[in-house]
Design a protein that fits this description.
The chain has 460 residues and is of the alpha+beta class. It has a domain of 257 residues: Uncharacterised protein PF07063, DUF1338 (2,3-Dihydroxybiphenyl 1,2-Dioxygenase, domain 1, Roll). It has 18 helices and 14 strands. It has a five-stranded mixed β-sheet with strand order 3-4-5-2-8. A three-stranded mixed β-sheet has the order 7-10-11. Strands 1-6 form a two-stranded antiparallel sheet. Helix 4 crosses helix 7. Bound molecules: 2-oxoadipic acid (OOG) and nickel (II) ion.
């Protein structure tokens, strides 16, 4: 029996091989990321691995896919369920950017620490929102929904194997090979001709609608390696002549701990696609949809920390509205004013999550009863819990920076309330709350500490 985590690791690996074949610039990005990671480890040693072992970080990827209907999303959930990946978080990108990104999203990923350590593969999964009248007229919505209802993204055999893997916790070798082959195939770029007129009509909404609803299949949109120094990576890619988007999304580079997530990407590249014209002629055209993204991860923030993060981002926007220093300079200043610049500071202010463990050689005598004292006096170690999720504004920014046009949005219409409960029903599964997962991991580590030290409880 091949357990789910091995299926997940093999899927991530095979998807990466396939995507490297389809998008050679991805291979360059992976090579440069690996060089950067090697250099950071050589320079900083163990400190470089504070947020994960170099083994995990080198293998770590997230993918992104986009589907059209709740039924398709439900099928995606079965395939990822087979790999031990569960829907976590709800992201509404419709209002997270100035241009139109008519999707809502969740991320499929492992949810417990042991599974994450075995292989942390995650997939940001977006679903089109045709019922939102700000983007789609009733007439276009009807045609789009009927087009989507008539396509089949996943073969029944794939879904059947997925259900079996989820039920049994894995698959025998032969079934595993079949399952992985079919699953990787389902995310390859299809050779089927694209209906040029239909695609062009949807492209005005913006291009995301055409990428999702203009074709009869889905595909992996990007696969993102994790890097230890994203500023260095950005420079090295630019030096190689690769056009990167203007910014690194998320928190700035600064002297304090990395929090949450920083991401950047290179612009979508033109890829040859077969197109069918209204008169039936088939010719080779090109589409720009798929891009390469890279990310650096930091410590997960508590709800208080996250609220602080959101306030700081708004403060950066506010100060940027006035002329003066660059956004990067403003961001550093705002960060230095608004966030403790040490892990200890983040911990004591209850802004970030940590995993606690009894030290290998604790001092003697009666242990103190606060986490701060336990850590300060060498009883206990505190290791940051890595942020495993995404950021709506960064995600919308990544979508947006890769769209050639702003698209259209009729702001006179009210948006349709697609919310987390709606999504859970569509997926047919609970959507996990990211904060609850981090809090549970931290709480379990504290319980293990108090049990081992034989003390009833501790406070912060
Ligand atoms: C997803 C964009 C969001 C991220 O890392 O924030 C994303 C997409 O382009 O489909 O992948
Ligand atoms: Ni991404």
């Amino acid at each position: 029996m091949i357990p789910q985590w091995r299926l997940r690791a093999r899927f991530a690996q095979e998807l990466s091989t396939m995507y490297g074949r389809e998008v050679p610039a991805y291979t360059t990005l992976v090579e440069v990321s690996e060089q950067v990671n090697r250099d950071v480890v050589a320079r900083d040693g163990d400190a470089a691995q504070r947020l994960g072992s170099i083994g995990r970080i080198t293998a770590e990827r997230h993918g992104a896919i986009r589907v059209g209907t709740p039924t398709e999303l439900g099928q995606v959930a079965r395939i990822f369920g087979a790999l031990g990946m569960h829907p976590v978080g709800f992201y509404d990108l419709r209002d997270a950017a100035s241009s139109s990104v008519p999707v809502i999203s969740t991320a499929f990923r492992p949810i417990d620490a042991a599974e994450l350590a075995l292989n942390p593969f995650r997939v940001f999964t977006s679903m089109l929102t045709p019922a939102d009248p700000r983007f789609f007229t009733p007439e276009l919505r009807a045609r789009l929904e009927s087009f989507l209802a008539g396509r089949q993204l996943f073969r029944p055999e794939l879904l059947e194997l997925a259900d079996r893997a989820e039920r049994d916790g894995g698959l025998g070798e032969r079934d595993a090979e079949n399952f992985l082959r079919l699953a990787v195939q389902a995310f390859e770029l299809s050779a089927e001709p694209v209906d040029r007129a239909w695609y062009a009509e949807l492209e005005k909404i913006p291009a995301v609608a055409a990428d999702i609803g203009g074709v009869r299949s889905t595909h992996i949109n990007h696969l993102t390696p994790r890097v230890l120094d994203i500023d260095d990576l950005y420079r090295r890619m630019t030096d190689r002549g690769i056009a990167m988007i203007d910014n690194i999304q998320g928190p700035p580079r600064w002297r304090g701990p990395d929090v949450l997530l920083r991401q950047t990407s290179f612009r979508a590249l033109a890829e040859a696609r077969t197109m069918r014209d209204p008169d039936g002629t088939v010719a080779t055209g090109s589409l720009r949809v798929r891009f390469g993204e890279v990310e650096a991860r930091g410590v997960a923030l508590t709800p208080t920390g996250r609220a602080r993060y959101d306030t700081l981002l708004s403060e950066i926007d506010r100060r940027c509205a006035a002329a003066g220093p660059s956004r990067a300079e403003i961001a550093v200043a705002v960060w230095e004013e608004g966030l403790p610049d040490t892990e200890r500071g983040l911990r004591e202010a209850g802004l970030a999550y940590f995993s606690f463990a009894v030290s290998p050689a604790p001092p003697g005598g009666p242990p103190p009863r606060t986490l701060t004292e336990l850590v300060d006096q060498g009883w206990v170690t505190a290791t940051p819990i890595v942020y495993e999720d995404f950021l709506p504004r960064s995600a919308a920014g990544i979508f947006q920076s890769n769209l050639s046009a702003e698209g259209t949005r009729d702001t006179s219409q009210a948006g349709v309330a697609y919310d987390q409960d709606w999504l859970a029903t569509a997926v047919g599964r609970d959507i996990h709350d990211p904060f609850a997962l981090y809090a549970a991991e931290q709480a379990a580590s504290i319980t293990a500490v108090t049990t081992k030290l034989g003390i009833p409880e501790v406070t912060r």
